[in-house]
Amino acid sequence: MLTKKQAKFLKSLQIKKYRKESGNFVVEGAKNVLEAVNSPFVVEQVYGTPSFLEEHAEILADIPCEEASEKELVSAGSFASNNAGIALVKMPRNVPLKVQGDEFVLVLDDVRDPGNLGTIIRVADWYGIKKIVCSQDTVDVFNPKVISATMGSFTRVSLYYCDLEAYLGRANAPVLGAFLEGENVHQMEFPKAGYLVMGNESKGVSEELEAKVTQKISIPRFGGAESLNVAIATAVLCDNLKR
Question: How many other C-beta atoms are found inside a 10 Å radius of the C-beta of residue 181?
Answer without folding.
Answer: 6
